[in-house]
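User: Predict the full complex structure for these chains.
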Amino acid sequence: MARLQEKVLTSNFNFKESPFKIKYRKYLHAAVDILSRLKKYPLAFVGLIVLVVYFLMAVFAPFLCPHDPAESNISIRLKPPIFLGGDWSNPLGTDSIGRDLLSRIIYGSRVSLLIGVITVSISVVVGSSLGAVAGYFHGRFDALLSRLADLLLAFPFLIFTIGAMAFMGPGFWNLIIALSFKSWVEFYRLVRGEMLSEKNKEYVEAAKALGQNDFTIILSEIMPNIFHSILVLATLRLGYLIVAEASLSFLGLGVPPEIPAWGSMIQSGKNHMMNAFWISTLPGMALVVLVLSINLLGEGLRDILDPRLRID
Amino acid sequence: MKKRDVSWVVVLIVLLMFSLVLVGGCGSKQEKSAQDSSEHKEVMVEEGGGTIVIALNTDSIVTFDPANYRDRETETILRNMFDGLVTRSPDGKVVPQIAESWKALSPTEWEFKIRKGIVFHNGEVLTAEDIVFTFNRIIKEGAINGQTAARKGLLGPIEQVEATDEYTVVFKLKEPFPVILQALCHQQIIPKDYYEEVGLERFLEKPVGCGPFKFVEGKLDDKVIMERFDDYYGGSPEIPPVGPPKLKRVIFRMIPELSTAVAALKTGEVNIIQRVPEDMIEDLKQDESIQVKEAKGTRVYAIEINNKMPPFDNPKVRKALNHAIDMDKIIKELYKGYAVRLPGPMLPYAFAAHPNLEPYEYNPEKAKQLLQEAGVKDLKVVIDTEPFREEEALVIAEMLKDVGIDASVRKWEWSVLKAKMKEGSRQIYLTDWGNAYLDPFDFLNPKLKTGGRGNYSFYSNPEVDELLEKAGKEVNDEKRKELYYRAQEIIYNDAPWIFGYAKISVEAATSNVKNWRPSMDSRENMHDVYIEE
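Assistant: Here is the predicted structure of the two-chain assembly.
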């Protein structure tokens, strides 16, 4: 961290490069730095690899799937997976109306990752910009926003989203709205707090003395220094939001039922737990592995970047 | 390093203690259950009988008031504590219970002779007064503390009930009511004096009837416990054996999840479960400690179409939908053959079911052609269903896609779906309707007559209305049949629904349950049942 800050400081005094290039290089340096340090955390590294595999799976889903995930054939319903005596035409078996489970799980990763990533991105952008403004200017705007944030935090997350989804009805964008509605608060609080402590530091005063305006200071002086905290929180929230999406889909409040999602797949197998447990269990395992690897990566990143957040 | 060793020791100790607790817990539990069963045995030797536990597929029944509910689960429980004037044998035949005999004095006047020597659980003797009181509470507006009984609708044109002497009752009707005996099977008699003395509140806390079991304790959303009534008059002479029940205790438990109920049956925690999921029947049949039995179902499952909404107001489109669905395949694969396909709207074993209708043939080509003739292109539909028929709805959506209709499925809770259907804002919906009377009067009238209370398809054909109207007033069975046949032919050709199926109701019990079989009306009358040691 100290090294990072030093780099930031020195590069700021290099007037020959354009500000855009400086910023870009700063983030690139940080990324390379993180990756090289991640090697020392094998669990986090494994998490990263698994996450990359899931992303590739989601992107290339149409090429990987043996069947159309929506195509049903009730003549082969409840077929067991290969390791329980099934055959290779449906390696992970079929569900209660004869849809191929492997294809549905692969397609399900799209919903989970897409919703997770979009929601986290929205939360990061909204939360950090509001938090930065509130923390830096610290006026009536801050007081108002902070009360709103407290209010939103007082509601349990899942119950709040269930209510919102019940109100808006199932739908991809509705789900993203419902999940983002509250999850920006975490980022708001983080950035606001960091901003409050950073804004009195010397390098900010130096930048002020150089005559930079407030928004330039926020964006190119302070933000790069708290970016790593945001990254850690974003990774940890990603796992949480994916689970939240699955919970809502399980309750039938997630994406429309035509789109395969892990939560609704787990739900659809609930009545067959006694005779075809794989319908629920396999998508459940896909979910567990994804969220576990995200959390491992997140904790590794936290150890590397922001040891202050460590709880032990 | 040293610190690490210490922590390992701590972990080991914790694990050891945990496993000790587990072992200890198991041991004492076993001991306790052994004790329990020996105590239990003593009780049984003394009093005979035993306890039976029945799982009901609901999260809560409605009430303990025999006049104020409409669901079958509540009836199933109440029927063991309350008897009716008449009842139904497991095959659906109407037999006497409290009434000894009856005759129709005229098409609008029925006389019932009451059996002598019947007492209620509190010792009160049952007379004609109690019958009159019970029925007045149901048919008079606002008779239950200002509220009108939910069961009033089931008694149709019954206008007045009079006691002509201590053991004779006469029912007076506004108009002929051909299914009056079937309707009376669903009404349970309560004691006048007790009810008037304690009032509604306390009656609900401790309901008193004259049925084979008396109420001990119970909560609507948990379980209801009842005990043998030793002074029981014996029940219907036409359903032997007659006499006091053999069981000591009957417990009904509400278990809304079917898979939970199956698991509870397998462990012996419950003795009887209803609505065994089709996919588990084979598995349960393999189990020697479990018996699986079937009864004909009295519920019609169909796919209703909104007949008012274009393009479904065109009979060609509705016929096309009938041709597009491979109902036989759905029955064979999804319901494992535990359903009977219906060619038209009615149950094949109901009175006046048309014997010569042929089910619409599965023929996607013909369906496409009919849609083309009707000028339908790029049709998009949403199929609505309750959660328990979601799989069927998804399969139907796939079949509709094969004939070029873009179909998707939406799941609803019944109460919400019902409101939406009645608004007329939905397109195609999977519904079911009970026909326990096995008579079209109780089925075609509510479902397919203009403005019928269950006419969710908004089907309206003046000719059918007239035929149903006439048949409802006709006393001659042969003539009634002819009228209903004609009505069914018209309905078949109009195809207001995608005609569906009747499920065979499959129930399972532990093998020590004797003299038990499922009823067509899905009641569980425990009077004749016993548990073998």
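Chain A is about 70% helix and 0% strand.
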